[in-house]
Amino acid sequence: MAAESEFVEIARLAAEEILAPPLSIRRGAALLYQVTVDNELSLTVDPKHPMRGNSAFQTDLCVFEEKAKDILIPRVVMEFKSKITTHDVLTYSAKARKHKQVYPYLRYGVVVSDESVVPGRLFTHNEALDFCATVAEYKGARLSEILAALLKAEVECSRRLEEVGFGKTRIHLFRTDVVFHTGGAKVK
Q: Cis omega before residue 74 (within 30°)?
């Protein structure tokens, strides 16, 4: 597979093909991992303009949804690795947990370019990652199709989580699912 930065670019281009406004994708976006107030009860960060190093971590790729002018909320984060170690699982899981404290509807996962199956260490050590896609066996159009289907599903899940989290929808069943379905429609 391509080097990690080249692989991120392949995924970004695939995402741009299927994402339609109000959705967009950014490479290297910073997301807040905490929002605090100082001793005068003023915010110590600007929630609309997070900056790496100021209570924000940088992400490889992030899908945003524009809710209003100058209001972009993160929907899906995709981090990229060529292989995934136990340390990676622990690190990205911790980052996901921190981001979700600020953005409770955020979906966060890892795309692994040089592995063909999700390793057991992910199930053993993960606490907050929502997905892991291993794509070593996919090339070209099939890779783009897999990534597009993943993004579509995760954006929809994020939207449902937002509705539930902010009281717009009530649910009677919650479950996780390890089955991955593919499809190719534009996401709006």
A: no
CATH match of 4-165 with 3.90.1570 = yes
CA dist 71 → 30, 93, 109 (Å): 15, 26, 23
Mention every residue, 6+ apart, whose C-beta is less than 8 A from residue 108.
76, 77, 79, 92, 95, 96, 99, 100, 128, 129, 130
Buried b (16+ CB within 10 A) or exposed e, 148-160: bbbbbbbbebbee
> What token pair was written down for 182?
């593919």
d(CA 108, CA 95): 9
- Please, which residues bridge with residue 78 across strands? 61, 109
Residue pLDDT, tens place only, 43-91: 999 999 999 999 999 999 999 999 999 899 999 999 999 999 999 999 9
Give backbone dihedrals phi and psi of 165, rounded to 5 degrees, phi first: -65, -30
Count CB neighbours of 119 within 10 A: 16
**Cross-strand pairs, 25:** 63
Domain positions in the chain are 4-165
What's the CA angle centered on 102, arms 175 and 162, to 5 degrees?
Answer: 45
Helix (H, G, I), strand (E, B) or coil at 23: strand
The pLDDT, as a whole number, for residue 1 is 53
